[in-house]
Amino acid sequence: MTSDPYRARRVFVWTWLPGEATPVVAGAVDRVGANRLDFTYARSYLDNQNAVSLYTTELPLRRGAQEPLGGLAIAACLKDATPDSWGERVIGNRLGSGDRELSIETYMLESGSNRLGAIDFQQSAQEYRPRLNTAGLDELYNAAEKVLAGEPLSPAIGDALLNGTAVGGAHPKVLVTDDSGTEYIAKLSVSADVHPIIRAEAVAIELARYCGLDVPDARVIRSMGRDVLLIERFDRTPGGRRRHVVSGLAMLGLDALLGARYGSYPEMLDVLRELGRAPRDVGRRLFERVVFNVAIGNNDDHARNHAAFWDGEYLDLTSAFDLTPQIRSTDTSAQAMSIGRDGSRTSQFSVCVAAAADYGLSRPDAQEVVDRIVATIEGTWREAADAAGLSEADRHTLWKRSILNRSTFYD
User: Fold this and answer.
1) CA distance 212 to 384
2) 87 and 163 both lie in a single domain
3) 137-176 pLDDT, tens per residue?
4) From the DSSP assignment, how many helices (H) and strands (E) are in the chain?
């Protein structure tokens, strides 16, 4: 079993300033205790007239070491850029650490560089060396299955699979780029899946588009005889420039392990109103996403599955993502985050309408949103299912079970 190669090593944080194609060093992370890493901005970054804070509520532009807020191990906006459970599993396989958890520094420096948002981690403050190994999709598919089975990978394919650790989530995924240079997150269906998770998310994205929600372009392709969902990256602009992104977790200042399910939509809305580019409109936009999640049976809507762009001054909601209907064994369900300020999270439209004032809406306005989304889903279901390539069996699994389950209409 290998030792942890980077624990307590200084990690340099590099970032892409808005509109720039190349990164600059922003500062460094240093371990100051068993469970605490502080961040310090580089003097060169503070002297840069174009510098923006990595996130103003956590890491304002100022000299000196900054301790994580709220007892966190590391600033949440930096934690956003570290691997999630799938990425940690790939890194553990590559380093031969088994199931042993490695340090945050190791996950930072061993994960791919093409990560969510506009932050990367390096061993040097002078030279930026990206970790961007690539391989064919079929090869990556085989590698993912080996990781799930606990089998070791060859160094070359292990390095290539590492690129997919740059984006979060628990499900196996890799990063691919098409001939036009457009970047995609490729979510893989694997033998461990017990339901059609890939095509379920594909149909949810189609339904969301019909309902008027902002969602990325997506399509299902085949590799190794299995489904792959290609989702265009919303954190990249034409020309490959990167956009800063902060998760709902960072907006709420919560810990990734437990805090993802202890926030609430209204608390997140408070932050979006305070720092948002369009504070008057964001309440309705967020409410529509809540209603849609209830409608499709997506109760995995925790704080890390929401995000906003950050330009150094304003927050703006990103496209909706991780819209996956969850298979139910019973009618009862609850959302991961509270729908209303009273702590209510039961997956019912009446609970959404009762919380209307929390989103700046009247009850009639909230009911109109519910009625419109339900009617749109009912009217476009067949077309969306066809576009996602759902089999009859998959349609039977999802329709009126996960999607528009009868319990969502209970008063």
Assistant:
1) 14
2) no
3) 555 656 666 555 666 645 544 455 555 555 555 567 777 7
4) 13, 12
Residue numbers of the domain that contains 109:
11-122
- C-alpha distance across the termini of the chain, in Å: 55
Co-location of 376 and 404 in the same domain: yes
Strand-pair category, 315-317 with 245-247: unpaired
Provide mean pLDDT across the span 11-29: 96
Integer angstrom CA distances of residue 198 from 71, 112, 124, 142, 202: 37, 23, 39, 17, 6
The verdict on residue 266 lying in a domain is yes
What is the number of domains present in the chain?
3
Residue 131 lies in a domain: no
Domain final residue, candidates 204, 232, 260 = 232
Pairing type for strands 36-41 and 65-66 reads antiparallel
Q: What are phi and psi of 139, to 5 degrees?
A: -65, -40
65 and 178 assigned to the same domain: no
H-helix or E-strand spanning residue 38: strand 36-41
Same domain, 368 and 261: yes
The H or E element spanning position 227 is: strand 226-232
Q: Is 165 within 8 Å of 94 (Cβ atoms)?
A: no
Ranking 10-24, 248-262, 285-299 by mean pLDDT, the lowest is 248-262
> Rounded mean pLDDT of the chain?
88
Q: Which residues are within 8 A (CB) of 160 and not within 5 positions of it... i.e. 6 or more apart? A: 133, 134, 135, 139, 140, 143
pLDDT at residue 157 in the model: 46
Q: Given pLDDT bands bounded at 50, 70 and 90, which one contains residue 76?
A: very high
What does the pLDDT look like over 306-316, one tens digit per residue?
999 999 999 99
